[in-house]
Design brief:
The structure is a single chain. The chain is of the alpha+beta class and about 80 residues long. The protein has one helix and five strands, in the order βββββα. A five-stranded antiparallel sheet has the order 3-2-1-4-5, with helices on one face. It starts with a strand and ends with a helix.
């Protein structure tokens, strides 16, 4: 199973976004989303180090709630 992880953009340097989610920080490639307008505080879905989709803050929160439920259930 593959999961995309919602993360919030904290800063952008060229095609690299410095992102954070739940205290975890990662550098994420924006290369595959060159046509999308992205900025600081936007939320993106990250898969294998690449941003693959822009999402709303509410969508990110909902995804994290579901992931937390899965972890609690041992899935």
């Amino acid at each position: 199973m593959c999961l995309g992880i919602p993360m919030q953009i904290k800063s952008i340097d060229g095609f690299t976004a410095h992102c954070e989610a739940k205290g975890v920080k990662r550098d994420v490639s924006l290369f595959m989303m060159q046509e999308e307008e992205l900025g600081v505080d936007d939320y993106i879905v990250v898969h294998v180090g690449y941003a693959i989709q822009k999402i709303s803050e509410q969508e990110a929160q909902t995804a994290w709630e579901l992931y937390d439920q899965m972890l609690e259930a041992g899935v």
